[in-house]
Amino acid sequence: MSEFVLAKVEIEETAATIAADREFLASAVEAIRSTRSQIERHIRQDRFFLTTLEPYDPEPSSERVIRRMCAASAAAGVGPMATIAGVIAQEALEAMVSKGCRHGWVDNGGDIALILEKPATLEIFSDLESRNACALELEPTDEIIGVCTSSGTLGHSVSFGNADVALAIADDAVLADALATAIGNAVTDKESLSTCFDSFKSMDGFRAGLAMIEGSSSMYGKVPRIVEVEHNPERLTTHGKMSSARFIGTSSLETEVRT
Length: 259
Description:
Layout: E1 4-11, E2 14-21, H1 25-45, H2 48-51, H3 64-76, H4 84-98, E3 104-108, E4 111-115, E5 120-124, E6 132-138, E7 145-150, E8 165-170, H5 173-186, E9 206-213, E10 216-221, E11 225-230, E12 251-253
Antiparallel strand pairs: 1-2, 2-3, 3-4, 4-7, 5-6, 5-12, 6-11, 7-8, 8-9, 9-10
Helix pairs in contact: 1-4, 3-5, 4-5
């Protein structure tokens, strides 16, 4: 019988938690390396890809990962690097699924691609000092979905807003990452919670969103049931060399699934 494990990996700036049967882990690590290589090659060719905060039009000959990042970021109206964590998570999980994985996830610092045969709990937190946090109770999925977060007050996300948490659920983690950034940009104060999802409500692939600021929140779409949980810092996906609050994501999957 295969052993379900959680493996924390660090590859250059990428720190990810991979959860799956042990036999699938190597394919995820290989995909992370390949995805990073494609992005690094493109940055060497065009530094503007790294720095622009607006949609980027790739050449038709650009590698698939680059085109994927650009399509998602253009849909959300943000720069392509807003999708880097999501695309790495998505590519890694797709590699495992192609080998037969049907239950697992890749958490790239709060940007998560997942496929679930059993329910799981996704903690969302905005205060590292708090003992409690809210969490989403995720149900089994028939396919890969993305759950990604951004924040103007926590983590390494580049945000023009002030959201404590901006979360997007989408058909894949690439789009979810782009949307989380865009939603976070739109949350500047409590009043903006009423309009922060307006630009994305009719977008194909956008399933649900959650935004929080100063104790207030707003939701759109089919947001999973929200419960209170005890915050467990051991579940965080952090980089060993970048362990300050600046580099900590704003969500993490429960290491033990609910049966």
